Amino acid sequence: MSEAVQRRPRNRKQLIVAAAARQFERAGFHDVSVADIAAEVGVSASALYRHFSGKTGLLAAAVEQEIELLEEAYGGATDLTGMLDTAAELMLRPGRAGSVWQRGQVFLEPDRAAALEARYLAALEPLRRATGAEAPAWAAHSVLMTGWAFERARVDRDRARRLMVAAASAVAALVDLMPEGAVVLRPSAAGGGLRPASRREAALSAAVRLFAERGFHAVGMDDIGAAAGISGPTLYHHFPRKSALLTHVITRCLDAMQFELAGVLSATSDPAVALEQALGSLVRINVAQGDALAALFTELVHVPEDERAPIRRMQRDYRDEWVVLLVACRPELVRSDAQALVRAAQSVVNTMRLRLPLGESAQRDALLRIGRAVLGVRGTPSGSAGPLI
To answer: How many whole angstroms separate alpha carbon 320 and alpha carbon 336?
Structure first.
C-alpha cells in the first residue's frame, strides 16, 4: 500500500496570518520572529516567505484580517441589535486576536498605515449610522473588542455573547457623550506643562509620553534622556534599562489605583457607593495620567517575565475587589460574568479617553457614564468621583 501524500492545507496563508496575529498580540511585534510564526503553523521559514516578504508584511496582513472581520460584523445587518449580536458572535471566536491594529500600526509604513486606518474607519461606518453618533459607536465597538475578557474569565460563549450585547447596547444608547456646543480640546503640544524638578521623575514623565507616542520598542534610552534634559549616565543611575522604566510606570499606576481603592472600601459599607467611587477613581486617574495607565494594557508584554508576574498579581487583586462589589450590586451575575465585565469596563474606559477630546470635567462625566453602562449599574448620589485624598 502506498503512503498517503501529505497535502498542504488550502488555507495555509490564512493560517499563517492568524498565527502571526496571535503572536504579535501575545508578545509584541518586535519580540516575534518569522521563525516563531512558521513553527506555530508547522512550516519552514522559507515556505512562509513564499507568501509574505517579511514580518511587516505579515503585520499588515494581520491588520487586514482584523478589518475584514469588522466588515463582516458590521456590514451584514441594518438594525443595531442585529449588528451587535452578529459582531459579538464573531468577536468571540476562540483564539481570535483582537488588538493587532491598536498595537501594531506604529510599525507600519506611514502610507500603508494611513490606508489601513481609512479602511478600518469605513468598516465602522455602518455602526456609526446605526447609533446615530460617532462617540457611542466607538464605545460600542470598544466593548465588542473585549471578547478576550470573556475568554479569560471562561464565560460560556453564548452567555458571553448576551453580556457583551447588553453592554454594547447600553453604551450605544449614550448618544449625548459629545453634546452639541461641548468644548473640544486640541491635543496639547508634546512636553507641555511643568517639568518635574527631580531628574528621576523627569525621566519617568518623558518615558510615559514617548512610549504613548511611539511605542515601547521605538523609544531608546537616549531619546528619554534627551526629552527629560538629563545625561545618559544620570538616567542609567536611576534606571539600569528601559524595561525598568516601564515596570516602574506600570507598578506606580497600580499602586495609586489600589491606594485609592483602599480608601473607598474603608469609607463606606454600601457596595454600590464603593463601586461608583472605585469607577470614579479609575476615571480620574485615566483622565490625569491616561498615557501611563495605557501602558498596563498595551506594553506589559515588554516587561521581563519575572517582573511581569507580580504586576499581574497586583492587577488581579485590584480587579477582584471590583468583582466582589459588582456581584453585590448585581446578584444575578456569577463571578466569571463579573470578572469579564470588570475587565471590559476598565479597558473600554482607557480606550475611550482618546475618543472623547473634551474638557477635563466633561470627559470624566462621559467616561463615568460609559463605565456604568458596561458594568450595568446606575450611579449613586453619594458616589462622588472626585479626589479621595
So the answer is: 11
In the beta sheet, which residues pair with residue 358?
A: 184
First-to-last alpha carbon distance for the chain, in angstroms, is: 80
Residues 229 and 342 in one domain: yes
- Judged against a pLDDT cut of 60, whether residue 286 lies above it is answered with yes
Whether residues 168 and 220 share a domain: the answer is no
Instruction: With respect to residue 344, please indicate whether it lies within any of the assigned structural domains.
Output: yes
Grid cell of 323 as nine digits: 468583582
Residue type, 370: I
Residues 6+ apart with CB under 8 A from 15: 9, 41
- 23-53 burial, b for 16+ CB within 10 Å, e for fewer? bbbeebbeebebeebbebbebeeeebeeebe
Q: Within a domain: residue 82?
A: yes
Average pLDDT over residues 335-343: 97
Q: Do residues 255 and 120 share a domain?
A: no
The tally of domains found in the chain comes to: 2
pLDDT tens across 355-385, in order? Answer: 888 888 889 999 999 999 999 998 776 544 4
Residue 322's φ and ψ, nearest 5 degrees, are -65, -40
Question: pTM of the full predicted structure?
Answer: 0.86
Q: Which domain holds residue 357?
A: 199-375
* CATH code of residue 346: 1.10.357.10
Taking each helix axis from N to C end, the angle separating 199-214 and 221-228, rounded to the nearest 10 degrees, works out to 120
Chain Cα centroid distance, residue 213: 15
Do 95 and 33 share a structural domain? yes
- Residues comprising the chain, all counted: 389
Estimate to the nearest angstrom the gap between the alpha carbon of 359 and the chain centroid: 22
The pLDDT of residue 26 is above 80 = no
Containing 112, the helix (H) or strand (E) segment is helix 110-131
Cα–Cα distance, 86 to 100 (Å, whole number): 21
Pair (288, 369) in one structural domain:
yes
Cell of 281: 477613581
Q: Which amino acid is at 267?
A: A
For residue 359, the SS3 value is: coil
Same-domain check for residues 244 and 293: yes
Neighbours of 70 (CB within 10 A): 23
- Per-residue pLDDT tens digits for 133-177: 999 999 999 999 999 899 999 999 999 999 999 999 999 999 888
What is the rounded distance in angstroms from the CA atom of residue 144 to the CA atom of residue 135? 14
Q: Which among 117, 65, 120 is positioned nearest to 93, based on CA atoms? A: 65
